[in-house]
Specification:
Ubiquinone/menaquinone biosynthesis C-methylase UbiE; about 20% strand; single chain; binds S-adenosylmethionine; alpha/beta; methyltransferase; transferase; SAM-dependent_MTases_sf; Rossmann fold; 8-stranded mixed sheet; about 280 residues
């Protein structure tokens, strides 16, 4: 597991604020994805698996007040920040016990990139076992090959970002995990597997709302680890500053999700071709 909230930025408080601002920025688009997939029917029981500090859990509970949204995580300190109902789980623990009802929807947001392919395989199997027949899993995660656009562009920064990405990969993080998920979910026996994409853009949000994604503060630790020089860090900071102060700047960030359905016992297993919304 390549995620430790204490190591993701200058401090734990900083990372908690980043998670909050990230959820604030993209929740509307993510809710649109969920509601379109569920064709307007709100599920009654949902699991937010790997809910962290609950930035998404809380927003989903507000959006769907009649739904029970259970937040689950392996990190008890993060989970302590989430209002009940919550569930502290072991990394390979069953997600639903005999006395509990199955879930109609399991959401896994920005967790898969931090897991090894083996751990993800275990997660998909456990999700299937915890879902009602016909229940859905929605995985929201990163695809660095299709992250979006920032205008004005500064191509001279690309080698720096490539080095950051290579460092994250060496640390066990998969920044293009979304591309692997359809095959993994099909192999776990899910049906109707589809990739979904939406976006959030500065035409509807202030530029500063994109800070959790574009400010280099989260990479400050890479200077200490000698992945970046102080001069490179200063260049990233100057580039973000110049986007922020440019009245013609434009940012559009893509939100990637993969959806799959748990087959009912009577459903013959078939898959729909992958589509992009
Ligand atoms: C980047 S945080 C995302 C938190 C939250 N989903 C959000 O979007 O704000 C990743 C979370 O996944 C949790 N996690 C990692 N491996 C997990 C596993 N096997 N089962 C459940 N949670 C896991 C971590 O403890 C951490 O809280």
């Amino acid at each position: 597991m390549s995620y430790d909230p204490k190591d993701m930025g200058p401090s734990l408080a900083w990372e908690l604020r980043r998670l909050e601002r990230q959820a604030e920025l993209s929740f509307e688009a993510e809710l649109r994805i969920l509601e379109k997939l569920l064709t307007g029917r709100t599920p009654s029981r949902v699991l937010d698996l790997g809910c962290g500090s609950g930035a998404f859990t809380r927003r989903l509970r507000d959006a769907w007040p009649a739904t029970t949204v259970v937040g689950a995580d392996i990190d008890g300190d993060m989970l302590a920040l989430v209002a009940e109902p919550t569930k502290l789980i072991g990394p390979d623990e069953t997600l639903v016990h005999e006395s509990e009802s199955a879930y109609e929807l399991i959401i896994i947001r920005y967790v898969a990139q931090h897991l090894s392919p083996e751990s993800r395989g275990s997660m998909w199997a456990r999700c299937r076992a915890a879902l009602a027949e016909g229940g859905h899993v929605v995985v929201i995660d990163v695809d660095d090959s299709d992250w979006g656009t920032v205008q004005p562009q500064d191509h001279t920064l690309e080698p720096i970002y490539q080095r950051i990405s290579a460092f994250q990969t060496r640390g066990g993080s998969d920044r293009s995990v979304v591309g692997h998920l359809p095959d993994e979910l099909k192999a776990a026996g899910f049906i109707e597997v589809s990739r979904v994409r939406d976006h959030v853009a500065s035409s509807t949000r202030p530029i500063d709302d994109f800070e959790p994604h574009l400010s280099p503060t989260r990479h400050a630790g890479l200077v200490v680890q000698k992945v970046l020089s102080l001069a490179e860090m200063a260049r990233l900071a100057a580039a973000w500053q110049s986007v922020r102060s440019d009245p013609d700047a434009f940012i559009s960030l893509n939100i990637h999700a993969v959806h799959a359905t748990n087959p009912s016992q009577t459903t013959s297993v078939h898959t729909r071709p992958e589509g992009v919304m």
